[in-house]
Design brief:
46% of the residues lie in helices and 14% in strands. With 148 residues, it is α+β, with helices and mostly antiparallel strands.
């Protein structure tokens, strides 16, 4: 069984974040620079590790389609909130279930009240496919061994 902590080990340790008062334009610049599809929104004054998620989907639906200005729109106006989070000890199936149930593509990983990572649907799918590939290989080896 694969856990969220295993996914984090395969990723760079950096977690790029944005503040709620930053502009959507600044968030998009950071996302383009870091080649990521979403940013956790953090606000130290809030007392919670993550106050929202800003994603390309949020931007497309809540800025572009509504005719707003990227530079005049604060991240807090368009971020997705409340945030669904996972812990490093959650298994990949739990993470996938949360993503499916809430129609989201990114899950912040929180441990001891602090943000330690972000996993995407791509991370989850890669892990699940790799796990299934190992199972298939084990079953094939078992079948071949049983025939001998």
């Amino acid at each position: 069984m694969c856990f969220v902590r295993d996914l984090l080990r395969r990723k760079p340790a950096d977690v790029w974040t944005i503040g709620p008062r930053d502009s959507a334009y600044k968030a998009l610049e950071l996302m383009a620079e870091k080649d990521v599809g979403a940013l956790p929104v953090v606000d130290a004054a809030s007392g919670v590790p993550v106050v929202g998620i800003f994603s390309e989907r949020d931007y497309a639906r809540k800025v572009i389609l509504k005719g707003k200005s990227s530079q005049a729109t604060a991240v807090s106006e368009i971020m997705s909130s409340p945030v669904i989070c996972v812990s490093p000890s959650d298994d990949v199936e739990t993470a996938m279930h949360l993503m499916n149930e809430h129609h989201i593509r990114h899950l912040p990983v929180v441990e001891d009240g602090r943000l330690i990572g972000l996993v995407s649907i791509g991370d989850i799918l890669r892990a699940m496919i790799a796990e299934k590939d190992v199972l298939i290989m084990d079953l094939e080896n078992f079948i071949v061994g049983a025939r001998s």
